[in-house]
Design brief:
Helix content is 69%, strand content 2%. The chain is an all-alpha fold and 376 residues long. Strand 1 and strand 2 form a beta hairpin. Helix 2 packs antiparallel against helix 3 and helix 3 packs parallel to helix 5.
Length: 376
């Protein structure tokens, strides 16, 4: 893909994709704030703050966010990967991605993960543990938590780089065929892992990943690279008819996915047809929902959110750092909100907005005030 794309086309930022990634980072904050107040109890054993004030709405919102937020981020990263590889041939590409992803990850797991456990114990009024248990390689249940994304994205970049170094050309398939391949391979992968009982997380010292979604995320990464190869966003936007059709029908697979997923989670052993059929339907609906939402988000941002002025430029530049630092800040604010006598939905909104604003203020303060002074 890198060999067939034009280098010049990738050198200038595509603003709407930067805007889209920034919006997805906000949804990550929204998702993580929602876990504090969701009512299922599924996350209570390991989430940094477990507020007894809960509601059912945030759980549904989080399931919807979970369908698309990480695939969209991987898609955007995949789109920019070929141009980055063209500008930084050989080992320079891996060095660049290592500096951008792994060095911040190393700092974060040695500082922010211990802070996570401090907040986790404080929110439950539990005594603090021995200092050796606060790191991701020794804390068991918590592990890397939200920081899993950075090593996984580096893994995808490394695989993409390895394919380019081996000069293995991907098949010359159309974008439609690529979308079909993501759907078919994604369904087979998710269904297979679910039927074998290998769902859940694999946690190691270097990398954490969700078993049944790892390949799906990589496929969306490659789909982004395929869009770069075909210079999809250089051509004028197609007719809005497809956007209207997808907007009018996307609710169908989304609702099917929600119904079957919630049934499998909360009615174990009770199936609409059988375990195999229910899982096949669920994964088919999930991939259809994912691809529909990916198309809708990319198209809507391309048509209507393609500008970058003032605050937008600052927010885009801060998106990855905000992802890295937001959760301890969220935990501290959630701790302050624990005794507040306000409805959980109000806490949810306050926690989301204040965390996102605080995270951007910290990043901006570091870049504009602290870093120049340190350099001086």
């Amino acid at each position: 893909m890198a060999a067939t794309g034009r280098a010049g086309a990738g050198e200038a930022r595509i603003v709407f994709l930067d805007n889209l990634r920034t919006a997805m980072i906000f949804l990550v904050v929204l998702n993580h704030a929602g876990i504090v107040y969701e009512s299922s109890g599924l996350f209570a054993p390991f989430w940094l703050v477990d507020d007894p004030s809960t509601n059912d709405l945030v759980g549904i919102v989080n399931v919807l966010i979970d369908i698309c937020v990480m695939p969209v981020i991987f898609f955007v990263s995949g789109y920019f990967a070929p141009a980055s590889l063209t500008r930084r041939p050989g080992w320079a590409f891996l060095a660049h991605r290592f500096n951008r992803l792994i060095l911040p990850w190393m700092l974060a797991v040695l500082t922010l993960m211990p802070a996570y456990k401090v907040i986790f114990l404080a929110s439950r009024q539990l005594p603090q543990d021995h200092w050796t248990t606060y790191f991701h390689f020794s804390n068991g249940t918590l592990s890397q938590s939200w920081l899993w994304f950075l090593p996984v994205l580096f893994l995808f970049d490394a695989l993409f780089w390895a394919l380019a170094q081996a000069k293995l050309r991907p098949p010359e398939i159309s974008l439609r065929a690529g979308v079909a391949a993501v759907f078919i391979l994604g369904v087979l992968y998710g269904f297979g892992f679910s039927m074998l009982g290998h769902t859940g997380w694999t946690k190691t010292i270097l990398i954490d990943f969700q078993n049944e979604r790892l390949l799906i995320y990589f496929l969306t990464f490659l789909l982004g690279a395929l869009c770069y190869r075909d210079q999809v966003f250089e051509a004028p936007p197609a007719s809005k008819r497809t956007l209207i059709v997808v907007s009018a029908t996307a609710w169908i697979p989304i609702n099917v996915y929600l119904i079957v997923l919630l049934s499998l989670l909360f009615r174990p052993g009770e199936y609409f047809v059988s375990l195999a059929v229910d899982l096949l339907v669920m994964w088919s609906a999930y991939l259809a929902s994912l691809l529909s939402l990916l198309y809708l988000l990319v198209t809507m941002f391309r048509l209507w959110i393609d500008g970058e002025r003032g605050w937008g430029r600052l927010l885009n530049a801060a998106s990855y750092p905000v992802y890295i630092i937001h959760l301890p800040l969220l935990g501290l604010i959630a701790l302050l909100l624990l005794p507040a006598g306000v409805p959980s939905l109000a806490k949810y909104v306050i926690l989301t907005v204040s965390t996102y604003v605080a995270s951007n203020v910290v990043v901006f303060g570091y870049r504009e005030i602290l870093k120049p002074r340190m350099g001086a």
